[in-house]
């Protein structure tokens, strides 16, 4: 939105052209969402407390979690509001990738909101029935996938980039639609499963968003793309603005979500953020690298799959509790230690993912 104002101001003074610079807009988008989250946060938390929108806690989990009972949830609304406002202000709204990303953010946010609302307001422990949750996630993801496939203008947009191999770029064709679907839905639910401890999900989200910002920048720059042997896809550089907004909103939310948390993001935040990371990875053609950088999300998801599968097939559990962060808590690790160690692992995996840019 402000780009239009900038273009008008440039007619009065060429100095305003600095606001067209991508890097500056990304910084401003980060600061805007950060400040918005920090300023609005206390008011929203107080409002959620007045509405008695509190977290419910499983009685079969770590006993230390019982003190979290009643902590306001649905704080993801704050994250989404900060991101959307920042993006509308600083992004180029004529860019289709911006609207695709916002569609996933808002669409998955609505699904998560309905789930949270049923759980904490209507006191329905099941929330949104699983099949309906996956149904709407599927509808949104497939709609976006079909739109992207039908509007492609170059072969690079539907190629699969394989890390470490610069000449291995198979054309997906119609499989691209399925690939988008699994990436977006899988990423969304993986972040959702990880969101179980104070700050555990938001920091890896921030780290992955930061790395995706780098991928978006070089993918949308023909000189860097050629040098790094990655597909050049025009307009993807604008996704840097969205990544910056995610980082800022995430840091602002962490201000209140750090141990001991004053608010939880809920499904409205985790489903939306996971979906956005997935669609950005798709747009910059780095779905496989997302699996590497988001390794913490993958491990958490696999722990649930393994636990459920083992119990159904053998009648035995592999972990003391799933997702795996609860397993370590039940082994005696204090919650802050689990959180920080998972953050460290996430940082390492993000660095490995970034290394694939050059190691080809």
Q: What is the CA-based Rg, rounded?
A: 20 Å
Give average pLDDT, whole number: 89
Low-pLDDT windows of residues = none
Topology pattern, helix = H, strand = E:
HHHHHHHHHHHHHH
- Could you tell me the number of beta strands? 0
Sum up the overall morphology in one term. Answer: globular
DSSP helical segment count: 14
Report on the biggest sheet. Answer: none
Structural classification: mainly alpha
Strand composition percent:
under 5%
Kindly, what is the distance between the CA atoms of the first and last residues, rounded to a whole number of angstroms?
38 Å
**Overall helicity:** 55-70%
Keywords for this entry:
360 residues; mainly alpha; globular
Question: Helices and strands in order, then pairings?
Answer:
Layout: H1 2-10, H2 22-50, H3 76-90, H4 96-120, H5 130-150, H6 175-194, H7 202-219, H8 222-228, H9 239-257, H10 266-283, H11 287-293, H12 295-314, H13 324-330, H14 335-355
How would you explain this protein's 3D organization?
There is one protein chain. With 360 residues, this protein is mainly alpha-helical. 66% of the residues lie in helices and 0% in strands. The chain has helices at 2-10, 22-50, 76-90, 96-120, 130-150, 175-194, 202-219, 222-228, 239-257, 266-283, 287-293, 295-314, 324-330, 335-355. Helix 3 runs parallel beside helix 10 (266-283). The model has no long low-confidence stretch (mean pLDDT 89).
